Task: structure prediction
Amino acid sequence: MKIAIIGSGYVGLVAAGCFAELEHEVVCVDRDEAKLARLSRGECPIHEEFLPELLKDYVGNRLRFTADLPAAVAASEVVFIAVGTPGSDSGEADLTSVESVAREVARGINDYKVIVEKSTVPVCTAQRLATILEQGGAPRGRFDVVSNPEFLREGSAVCDFLFPDRIVIGSSSARASDKLRAVYAPLTSGAYSMRADAIPAPDGAPLPPPLIQTSTRSAELLKHAANAYLAMRVSFINAVANLCESVGASVEEVCAGLGADSRIGPEFLQPGIGYGGACFPKDLAAFHAVARECGYDFALLDEVKRINEMQRERFLGKVREALWTIKGKRLAVLGLAFKGGTDDIRESPAIFVVEQLLAEGATVVAYDPAAMPRAREVFTELEYAEDAYEAADGADGLLILTDWEEFAALELARLRRALRYPIVVDGRNLFSPERMAEEGFFYHSIGRPQPRAQRALKLRKAS
Ligand code: NAD
Result:
């Protein structure tokens, strides 16, 4: 099938590479000429597992890039809109890019097209898009607007796209639904997963994935509801972790008991320094704004946000408790991305923490396996290290801010030798408190009792 994807960011580029992997012919559009030039050379502008390989395999044959949006639409049967929908000051989604894309899409409609909302948009956006397309000269009957929300997670985006938990198609048109079903047929038939050259399916992925057909509005709404619910789980477990700290319970033990309940499940119950990224914060705010517009006060969402913001402040409190004064201290920071596996620093809680520490007069030496090129573009006051040990070298303490797997595998004795003082404040609970105490660290984490040696020391200090 001939497919156009408008927007070659984290979602559009992954979708483009994956659709090419599913043997469709894909043209990917962007307005960023520099990015297009890199992509056309086969370079991958983001850090995402398997994506460089897909680009290497398909750029120049089944996958091409262009800035000519109307021509890409004219040459395609299905058009995915995957441009950004950032938050505005009032919380509402800023749909400026979606609208301007729709106006250009209208110019390329020369035959029946399925126009797909892949971007996360507020409920009823499809109706608006249809109006814009008509205003732009696209006759009714020549197109349908369909919602096909994307649930991929940065860091495992390619696998999430090829082995999704579900595919949602929101449409009232049988013709459009059939076209979109055909696009995803290699996944829903199970044919792709049986291919000898397929990217391996992650453990537990439903094969084949279920396809859920809904109304357009339900599909739009359920994407916002999904992200708001996930953000709520993060805030919930962070609140429970804070309570654990007050009474000396272990949030890990609580999570083991909670997650074993089949109605709750173990996923998304890791306490930390809060959620971030380009989706949860702005989607939570946008969902709240939608509810407000509909006359419903979804106050729960305010609380989810408040707990999330408080969690970062609490972490800073732990840093101050561990290090006492901040001004003039040299602090090693492991992780700048909002989560492990990505180079995305948008709304990263790690960046928030680093900014606060810099404002309080600390010198920060950071290391992140993927996010440093992006961080360098916005952060000139940071020192950057080549690896975790270099960051720790001579530092007064070490902070873990992103859950990269490579951090959990660090050689602890070497890390301790590198640090000036063996203080670790772990915002991602990557290590066991007992092991860290054995290794000689003063170790602080989230929602878990501090090791006995440290407690004894604290008591002695207090008396
Ligand atoms: P992004 O910022 O990484 O990419 C957007 C791309 O669109 C950029 O390359 C930009 O240059 C391009 N663009 C913007 N306006 C354009 C225009 N008028 N014409 C052509 N190109 C244009 O955004 P993203 O993270 O890929 O997110 C895209 C959408 O998908 C958002 O609505 C987001 O909420 C949603 N989403 C994101 C994720 C995620 O993990 N990032 C997951 C699911 C859904």
